[in-house]
Amino acid sequence: MERLIYLLSSLVFFMLVEGSYSILSPSGVNYEVVALIAIKSDLHDPYNVMENWDATSVDPCSWRMVTCSQDGYVSALGLPSLSLSGTLSSRIGNLTNLQSVLLQNNNITGPFLDVIGKLEKLQTLDLSNNKLFGEIPDSVGNLKNLNYLRLNNNSLRGLVPNSLAKVESLTLVDLSFNNLSGPLPKISARTFKVVGNPLICGPTSQNNCSVLYPESPFPPDAVKEQSNLGAKRHVAIAFGTSFATVISIIIIVGLLSWWRCRHNQQIFFDVNEQYDREVRLGHLREYTFKELRAATSHFNSKNILGKGGFGIVYKGKLHDGTVVAVKRLKDYSAVGVEMQFQTEVELISLAVHRNLLRIWGFCLTENERLLVYPYMPNGSVASQLKEHFHGRPVLDWFRRKRIALGTARGLTYLHEQCDPKIIHRDVKAANILLDEDFEAVVGDFGLAKLLDHRDSHVTTAVRGTVGHIAPEYLSTGQSSEKTDVFGFGILLLELITGLKAVDFGRVTNQKGVMLDWVKKLHQEGKPNLMVDKDLENNFDRMELHEMVQVALLCTHFNPSHRPKMSEVLRMLEGDGLAEKWEQLQNFETPRYRSSECCSQRYSDFIEESSLVVEAIELSGPR
Q: Is the same domain home to 513 and 588?
């Protein structure tokens, strides 16, 4: 009996260990590390972006271009626009928890791998603008959660597999500019592009093949009936005939039931409100207004997390108990721009990185736009800078350094790994959120502009927060990645000083702005005087010196002399700061507006700007 108990106990222990370390081989090797190293080995990486991919590591979650889920599995691989060549290793099939693969705009060659069909959790697959050849395998039909599929601008041939018709979650499929042939399967994606495939779209049919949409869900007679439905209902109401009203409702319910059966989707109709719908676009969900109103207790003021120029953020609790943050955008009319808004949200939602706030979904009605995000339990950096726990600052020096690194990684991803790239335009402590582990999460893309690589800047009305806005943006309204770099430099100063830049003058009873004050103390060799007094000298002097130098490099008045975010990240990690700083000191900079850049005060730009900018926060945290 004792032996039986021992065997059962051993079996239970083994099952627990196996469940906890299922990612490890019997010899303790991480299968995902092996797969990623194989991918690295088969690719030529001219910019060494995979330099920190270490075969001896047991945890790939800190590697560049790799994102992990909360349970520690690799969930996203993002290596777009990096001039990668070589082939894609078949070991990618072992990364079975992948949800996003972004390898577009490289020079990767080889066949479309059949093993990709093993990635059943995959939602986004972008291999466009490479040199892939061969056929699209039938296994792609196994990707039941696939939402976006981009294989355009390759050299793929053969038939489009019929198995794609089984993937009901597809929203966009782009197979344009290959050598594919027909007939085409009936794919349910809202957008299906096949232009540039001569065997499918010949010269005479090119204009009709650019975008194919799925056929109408209603048969012709039903469409006619639906188009006349509104008129019937008004006539019924005019005559006050309850019988006709009932018949109209029966027809509506019948049509909706027919649609639901055909497409296996749940659709809601509420006769007391505007038509509500629940749609899932891969991981992105469209919520009903009624659902979000209930979640926030009718947008109760007690649930407000923050306010900004673009709206109010509420804490909400969905019917399944999930706690969310709901951003209700203000001053909005959705007439004629519904598709534009959805497209923008879907594109932004493709930015997947551990240091970026992930959009969960949205709500769009005639008069409302709402965005739904995961709730960040530790609020924002701005809200925590002056908080204490047991007499000690919640954000100690170690956490502040980690926040700087996490924010830099998130912005590097937005600027250099997204396609199209994303400019945030309001980088500040209030927009850097903190998860349960105080990991930095870049939030508030309400001001973000999506740029194509062909654009070096975008000109818009100046929006942002005074004290964070770059001089060239104040002067000309032109923003670029370097605008965000300037904002990041100010964020570093906020982390160092423990003050919000916008409150600097009021809190310190000093004239001018934080940047001018920091420059003065740095020139006088008194960096310790700028450090948050709450830290009580519990900080690394060398790291302080380096962080101040990085901040001053980022806030250079001439944007062309500011580093890129990838360079900023490397400097914060301890690589290249001395060379960059020396280069700047030896560089004769022409005076910005006919004055030496370093002596020009930032406050002068605010005062002299021809643009009317109130000294308030023009946007706020999510």
A: yes
Report the greatest alpha carbon distance in the chain: 92
Cβ atoms within 10 Å, residue 308: 23
**Domain span at 258:** 220-263
Q: Indicate the residue type of 295.
A: A
Q: Considering 354, 374, 394, which residue would you say is the last residue of a domain?
A: 374
- Using DSSP's 3-state secondary structure scheme, residue 162 falls into helix
Alpha helices in 288-435 (DSSP H): 289-295, 338-349, 381-384, 397-416
- 73-84, pLDDT tens digit by residue? 898 888 877 789
273 within some domain: no
Catalytic residue among 126, 174, 426, 444: 426
Could you tell me where the beta strands, DSSP code E, fall in 541-603?
A: none
Cα–Cα dist 180/134, whole Å: 10
386 and 370 in one domain? no
DSSP output for 2-42: HHHHHHHHHHHHHHHHHHHTTTB-TTS-BHHHHHHHHHHHH
Instruction: Please tell me whether residue 189 adopts helix, strand or coil conformation.
Output: coil
Q: Is the pTM of this model over 0.85?
A: no
Structural domains counted in the chain: 4
Statement to judge: residues 187 and 258 lie in one domain: no
Q: What is the pLDDT of residue 509?
A: 60
- 307 and 287, same domain (yes or no): yes
Residue 320 a catalytic site member: no
Q: Would you say residue 27 has pLDDT above 50?
A: no
Q: Dihedral of the CA atoms 195, 198, 203, 206 (nearest 10)?
A: -10
Rounded CA gap, 76 and 66, in Å? 6
Residue 616 lies in a domain: no
Whether residue 618 is contained in a domain is answered as no
Domain boundary pick from 171, 188, 208: 208
User: Do 310 and 329 form a contact (C-beta atoms < 8 A)?
Assistant: yes
Per-residue pLDDT of 105-123, as tens digits, reads 899 999 999 999 999 999 8
Is 74 part of any domain? yes
